[in-house]
Predict the structure.
Amino acid sequence: MHVINDHPILKFERGRKVQFYHDGKLMEWYENDPIAVALQANGVKILSYSKRFHRPRGFFCAIGKCSSCFMRVDGLPNVRTCITPLREGMRIETQHGIGEFLEDTPSDVIDQLGQPLIVETEVLVIGAGPAGLSTCLEAADLGCQVTLVDESLELGGQLIKQTHKFFGSSEDFAGIRGVKIAEILREKLIPYTVSGKLTIFSNTSAIGYYAKEDVVLCTQGEKRIILIKPKAVVVSSGAMEKLIPFSGNDLPGVYGAGAVQTLMNVYGVLPGKKVLMVGAGNIGLIVSYQLLQAGVKVAAIVELAPRVGGYWVHASKVQRLGVPILLQHTVKGAVGEKQVEGAWIQQVDEEGRFVGAEKFVDCDTICLAVGLTPTVDLLWQAGCEMVYVADLGGYVPKRDWTLRTSNPKFWIAGDASAIGEATTAMLEGRIAGLSVSKALGKVSESFFKNKCEEYWTRLNELRMAETCERLRKGLQFALSGNFPITVQSSEEKSQIFNEETYADAFDKRTVQSIIPPMDLWKKRKGGLVIIECPQRIPCDPCHVSCPTGAILPFQNINDLPSVDYSKCTGCAMCVAACPGLACFVADMTGEQAILKLPYEMSPIPKEGNVVACLDRSGRELARSKVRKVQEPRRDRTFVVHVQVPKELVMLVRALKVIEDE
Amino acid sequence: MNDKIFVCRCEEITIEELRMCIKMGFTSFNELRKILRVGMGPCQGRGCRELVLKEISKATGVPVHFLSVGTFRPPSKPISFGQIAKMNVCDVRIFESQKNV
Ligand code: SF4
Ligand code: SF4
Ligand code: FES
């Protein structure tokens, strides 16, 4: 019941099934998946009891950062079960209080601990997310000897759980799903591992920097110590989900959004059946969509701010599937003794005071997507100058334009430097990799300067989006020293988009501006495109995918798409390519209109199936038979043709397969 | 309703306790760490530091970026004595800086 078997995008390649014991009870799950995942799949949510109040605890971050998932494994206490792989016959026990060895702990538990290893390297990269992998690629390519350590069991950081297609420029990875990008990056690294330029330690945490001895202390799988002596260190350690105060915020079932993604998208295990999402930034919106894809109900999204923080297109994707977004609302308390059995939410006013009645939400999971805190412990230890910039996620190191911190041995990239997007993290990784190569004398001054400027130009372009305003502001406080290229900012605002307009309230003026010209529309067999993308975001796949050039070239990657309708043939290539699912095609030449809608849910409809046609807020407007189902890009985004009355053409934006009753 | 609101999950410090201590005049992260143990659990303040600083800021009116964040000592995660015991004498040297923790 906790396991996903049918997913519209992902296929789960599971290893060998093994048996293990949880508090003496025999259970089964797949080898090498994290222990916490195996337990969740078996319905076990309580991993330990806290030492002070003996409260039940489950996992929270699922990426080895919060230490909320400690259990005793084969006699060894304090094992982070979210990043420790399951093995045949493991004895896993609920931990009570501070982990202790049992008196009868066999001495071989201690003996299993491996011999420490000492590694010398030119460049140490900490964290194998988009930033870290890109750093490795750049530095190894420029001739550095690189060592990469990563906490997780699989390289790729947060990319490995992203089922959505990326925004950004088609020159980079726009239009490709995150999971696929992780694969591409990993493949690119293979030649360097083969040639010995790159050494990778996975399941390894870098936990201390000792300045006097100049060594980074790492532990591999809680079992072996690795001491690394690097010439340069790039910290790309990512970020951790923030906790917010509400009663019962430690109950099992209160999970970070990243943890929920790991569970369902990497391992195919469900967090629960019904989720309350806290936070309507991009992460909250994307994870809500992914929950729907995995077949989980999203009861509501609550957002403290008076507006949606994430991309408009992401918000409308979930809204048209019927998920309400409650602005100026927050979670007040979790209900339940042993695990989440519901939540209380309440409205807040401008000053953050609670107003109105508390409302009960029926749910078994509270998913926190209220922001991330950069993981920067090592940089503190290294004595780097740090600044608190709320707009960047918290404390971040000061850095110059080469991403070097005030400790000349340390560089930063990705979320550890400022909370941002994976696309910009990859560019930062490139810059850090280039910059360490320069510091190690591998490249010339002029080569370095040209390349660095090129990366910065691309970075600035991506950060010119409307939604990056806070990031742009925040960076001013974190960047130091001379800056050879100007950090551009754009105060340009989208014409038709105002902040209160989200899908539910798609106003008349906005609708008017996207209706294709009527005289042409009535005649054009195949139909014309309708694009609902009213916000400046860095994204261009609609233009790139259009075979006829009907979607005009972008001057700036953040531009709104504009259409030359005379060229549009209604081929729906853009419908399949747009990562925001914001392109639709309508053919008005027949008795009834034919709508071509993007679709990424389960089950995939077949010709002749009856589906419910939904409007922008998920209300059913009509039922219709599926005329045709296409998969133009062979990438699991389907284009479904349905017939609807002509007056519904500007209203119907999604569909739901009606399962046989 | 479940009544406890935690600012630090590891050491189980509730927001009431934190606010009371701030009221009593303990308005730096280091002081609070000593009396409450916030930030001394296995996550070493990754989860709670900001919440604590925000509460101090709210009570004292001092913006977060002016507050002291306390000291950071390696390691930032628990490490078993078994692991240390396995190290050579010369490697154990690196832990000496920690003795005064
Ligand atoms: S429907 Fe086809 S021709 Fe028309 S804009 Fe989209 S991709 Fe271009
Ligand atoms: S319509 Fe174009 S710019 Fe807008 S989200 Fe889709 S692909 Fe991106
Ligand atoms: S460390 Fe395992 S859940 Fe956070």
